[in-house]
Amino acid sequence: MSSRGIPGPVPHSPGRTPPTRRELLRYGAVGAVVAPALAACGSTADPDAFAGKKDYADPRRGGRLRVGIAGGSAKDSIDAHLATDNTDIARVYNLYDRLTDFSLDYKVVNSLAESLEPNAKADVWTVTLRKGLTFHGGAPVTAEDVVFSLARITDPDDPKTGAAAMPLLDRDKLKAVDDRTAEIRFSEPMVHLPEVLAEYYNGIVPKGYDPKKPIGTGPFRFKEFEPGVRSLFVRNGDHWRDGEPFVDELEIINFPDDTARVNALLGGQVDAISQLPHSQVKVVHAYDHLDVLESESGMWLPFTMRVDRAPFDDERVRQAFRLIVDRQQMVDQALSGYGTVANDIYGRYDPAYADDLPQREQDIAKAKELLADAGHGDGLEVELVTAEINAGVVEAAEVFAEQAKEAGVTVKLNRVNDFFAEGQYLEYTFSQDFWAARNYLSQAAQCAFENSPFNETHWADEEWTEIVTKASATVDDKERNKLLRQAQEIEYERGGYIIWGNPTVVDAFSKKVKGFKPFVGGHPLTAYGFRQVWFEDE
Amino acid sequence: MSAAPVKSESAATGPAEPAAKPRRAGLFRTAWGFGRTKVGVVLTAAIVLIALFGPYISPHTDTALVAEPYVTSADGSPFGTDYLGRDVFSRFLYGGQILLLLAASAALFGTLAGTVLGIVAGYRRGWLDELIMRTNDILLAFPQLIAALLIMSIIGPQAWLIVVIIGVTHMPRVARVIREATLRIVEQDFVKSAEAIGVPRWKIMVREILPNVTSPLLVELGLRLTYSIGIVAVLGFLGMGLQPPDADWGLMINENRLAITVQPWAVALPVAAVAVLTIGANLITDGLSRASIGIDRGVEK
Amino acid sequence: MIRLIINRLFFGLVTLFAVSLIVFLATQALPGDAASAILGRDATPERLTALREQLNLGDPVAVQYGKWLLAALTLDFGTSFASGYPVAEYLAPRLSNSLWLMAFAAIIGTPLALALGSFSAMRRDRGVDHATSMVTLVLASLPEFVVGIVLILIFSTGWLSLFPPIFAGGSGAVWQYPGQLVLPVLTLVIAVSPPIIRMMRASMIEVLESEYVQQARLKGLPEKTVIRRHAAPNAIGPVAQVIALQLAWLAGGVVAIEYLFRFPGIGLALMDAIDARDIPLIQAVVLLIAGVYIVVNLLADIVGLAANPKVRVSAK
Questions:
Q1: Number of domains in chain A
Q2: Which GO terms are recorded in the biological process aspect for this UniProt protein (chain A) (predicted)?
Q3: Angstrom distance (rounded) from CA B291 to CA A64
Q4: Which residue among B68, B84, B245 sits closest to A413, beta carbon to beta carbon?
Q5: Closest partner CB to B261 (pick from A283, A332, A413)
Q6: Number of domains comprising chain C
Q7: Using CB atoms, which chains have 3+ pairs under 8 A with C?
């Protein structure tokens, strides 16, 4: 797959590369509900918070870092605002910066912005840029560039990925107040703007940006790019983060196939790879010169039960199925132990996350009782539609089928390879899916409202909808979190998801590479943070 | 598998020697006389026994989760676990039944269908012969594996489909051999006399011709069985065979091949089973072939 | 003789045509609307329309087939759904990789098999001969991926760590990584050799017993010269057909081997295409493999005709 001159390796190969294009679609639909969260964004944020504290003595400069990234195809793009596949994301993270960023623990921190302040109503935001910022090539970064970037993203004739999350942006009133200050206006309150601006597809580009000559402020400058194959960037010596990056060159190589990616690392053709399949961690551990980076994440791989269709239209059946799952065993077997158990609710890193709800455990007796009450005392047979849409999904299905036997439930696996085909996806009675980390309201907008684009459980609970709609309009953090807590309790009691765990993202790299740190957001290799890594020695 | 075209070609010219009178018992007895046939029977029997009775002596069920994934040994798990933490030995004991069943069905189906076509073509001759043999040639233009992959990629992996595809791809190869054998028998007096007294054609085919082609038929059956095992296994290996969580040797190899460095047993056991089985079946076929035509099967003279 | 060959050639063409029809019908038989089945989650009305157009889905089946076949004749197999590249452009480097692999196997395997077969024949009924006969019989029965895995277990991950278990390649052409090529090539050599060895042995025995070899010996020529000058050249004739047939087998047999070693050839491309339901790619690879298979089989036929003295004589 890596030979030069072979165009676009096929994505979704036998390996288990997550189809991130779909994740993107979901990001794109964020705007369905305005989710006020994390309004405050202190102006004193440490620019290095994202990188974590520097616990190294003296990182060495120099060398070419070669990274194998899962995914990629001939559709690869290097446009700051159109990143879709993993390889695109890896590239834009390194060519461009955003006004804000997510820290390693999924908090929003300032990046190019020195401050980002809302007015009282939170419908006008004022951004002040850091001093002395320059683009690749030396041009200063001005408020005009911020205005241009936001206008480009939300261009109604050619909306970019980030547009859907800012539907209420008043484009005509975007204004550069002075060189370093810009005003961003919305037609209604937009309290979670800092979160939106931190997304990887909202990078700041110079006025007149041409994606063919991709210029940004990022730690690396563009040199070469071959869609579907590789790219080569060089160190940006004028980068605003002191001393970074450390390596002279960054080569990003596409590896949609798991085996090829792992073998490229074993064979020394790359220095680091993203997304090591969980069962292969052992393989890498067998080599002395390699190491792995384990990042706990807010990802989740739920079973989805359609609440409007038999047998799951009966709350007791849903509850019984949740009690069938031995969550620790699920993590141990399906994820080879690389993950943490979850409790049937999502939004792990949301401040409102109800982590004090009693952890649901396997209870076969209770499950049998519930099933008998629901009229399935003589056993129940269900079809579970599964597919290799993400590492661990088919494995989880196999483990569930085994666990269900104990409760007298026969699970027939139906593994399909066109899982997302029109007319099939969102129709399955009992199936599975995968989701990246997201805060509660953003996530609910994706999958839990009756009109959400990915309401796979066909959830349409009136009480829940009322509470969450109210929470969406509540600016006060405490008040809103109280409502969100109620919403989570409802889902915990009668929702259509079985959320059994959060997989850990595992990457692998050569031990001579130093500086990788775990990031909980789900993006591998410290959110592709190659600016902070260095080679130990020659 | 590796020599498929060659073997079918040479087997086709094989029975050119004098077509002996049908003596089936004699064929088996003669075949048994060769040492390699005995070895073949022992090897095949061992694997068939494992496949048939394995599930009854297995320490765990084929889907039970017994330990953490990819350990090389654990309590009650002498050969360790697979990628999900299931017992490799138990899955090995469970994994032969379906493979044998599919391979045997495909071989039987293909040989029977091929025999019917071969006899009809060889006896009726004329346009029917031409039609059957030209169609055969077209079917022969697909390597068996490619044909199976093409169809299964469209319809999806199904057990019955595996049997049908492999059977159909065997069919033309068997038909060629049986047609050759039929052609020689048709010339003989007993067929002519049966025709003379007005015996219906289908009766001639069933009563006069069929018993006289049993030797090449049995050799073909053995040969097709060997190839069927190989193709069923390779389909499983390519992920186009049985679907998880079923235990199947080909699938086991596919599921665990990535970790061959840390847990070789999960691949080695099913590979050994497939190897022994195909070798055994081929040795028996070789013995049958020598017995039936008095020469070493294939190209040896 | 010439007429026979022309006859075969013509029939080869007809077969190729029939095969293209089968491939087309098989892939067109996708359940439901092929376009939406292919695009899946990425389906937007615009993309569906574009794809339906590319697949000529609006036309009657016969017209669809005609358009597809005409394009295929000019090596235009459409655009790969998964990569967005023209299929021909996508497959070209992979085809050349596969050809390299097969060429190595053929170049190493054939002389080796011929030598082993002759050697076995010269020591007829001795231990070496019996051993060769047994080993080739055993190897001939093994599915090729089993051979590959056993080799990996022996030379890579089990006893010895001599060669990498998988072809990871690099930025250069495949032949620049000989160490990584060893196991895939060896697997293919083992898969194709046994019938050649057996045929060579049989043919050599026959020739060694022939009158002119006896005469050559009587003339007092050294045994080496007898074998090299007189026996070997005459024995190879009948083997040629077997060699050609084994090469034809390589076209299909390479799939499982490439999959096993992750070798970036057309076999692996086929497996990837199947996984991604990349119909144009599946069509092209299957046609390509069937085409190679037909052509090489045809060559084998012709070689067989040429090597058969009866036909040769009657053609004169």
A1: 2
A2: peptide transport
A3: 68
A4: B245
A5: A283
A6: 1
A7: A, B
Nearest to B145 by CA among C152, C248, C149: C248
| Mutation site for B-interface testing, chosen from A333, A335, A388, A432 by largest number of B Cβ within 10 Å | A333
Whether A13 and chain B come into contact, CB under 8 Å, resolves to: no
Q: What is the spatial distance between Cα C48 and Cα C36, in angstroms, rounded to a whole number? A: 6
Domain extent for C194: 91-277
Answer yes or no: do B253 and C149 touch at CB < 8 A.
yes
* Shortest Cα distance, chain A CAs vs residue B14, angstroms: 43
CATH for A174: 3.40.190.10
Query: Are the Cβ atoms of A279 and B70 closer than 8 angstroms?
Result: yes
Alpha-carbon dihedral of residues B210, B216, B222, B224, nearest 10 degrees?
-90
Residue A473: count other Cβ atoms within 10 Å of its Cβ.
13
Asked if the C-beta of A257 comes within 8 angstroms of chain C's C-beta atoms, the answer is yes
Domain span at A450: 303-503
Task: Note whether A344 and A385 are same-domain residues.
Answer: yes
Q: Does A14 touch chain B (CB under 8 A)?
A: yes
DSSP H helical segments within C262-278, as ranges?
266-276
Report all structural domains of chain B as residue ranges with CATH numbers, in order of start. 29-95+247-301 (no CATH), 96-243 (1.10.3720.10)
Chains adjacent to A (≥3 CB pairs closer than 8 angstroms)? B, C
Tens-binned pLDDT, residue by residue, of chain A (538 aa): 333 233 332 233 333 333 333 333 333 333 223 333 333 333 333 444 444 444 455 788 889 999 999 877 666 789 999 887 788 899 999 999 999 999 998 888 999 999 999 888 788 999 999 999 999 999 999 999 999 999 999 998 888 878 877 878 999 999 999 999 999 999 877 777 888 899 888 999 999 999 989 999 999 999 988 777 788 999 999 999 988 999 999 999 887 767 778 877 876 778 999 988 888 898 888 888 899 999 999 889 999 999 999 899 999 999 999 999 999 999 999 999 999 999 999 989 888 999 999 999 999 999 999 999 999 988 899 999 988 777 788 899 999 999 999 999 999 998 876 677 667 778 899 999 888 787 888 788 778 888 777 889 999 999 999 998 888 777 788 888 999 999 999 999 999 999 999 999 999 999 999 999 999 988 899 999 999 999 987 5
- Tokens encoding A103: 């820290």
Rounded to a whole number of angstroms, the distance from the CA of C194 to the nearest CA of chain A is 31
* One domain, residues A307 and A245: no
The two tokens of residue A190 are: 């937009």
d(CA C151, CA C50): 47
Structure tokens at B237: 């290996």
Find the closest chain A residue to C174 by CA distance: A3
Domain contains A479: yes
Same domain, A406 and A480: yes
Task: Look at the alpha carbons of A147, A150, A156, A157 in this order and tell me if their dihedral is positive or negative.
Answer: positive
pTM of the model: 0.77
Burial class (CB in 10 A: 0-12, 13-18, 19+), B125: middle
Chain A residues in contact with C39 (beta carbon < 8 A): 422
Q: Do B6 and C246 touch (CB under 8 A)?
A: yes
Residue A51 counted as domain residue: yes
At C152 the three-state DSSP class reads helix
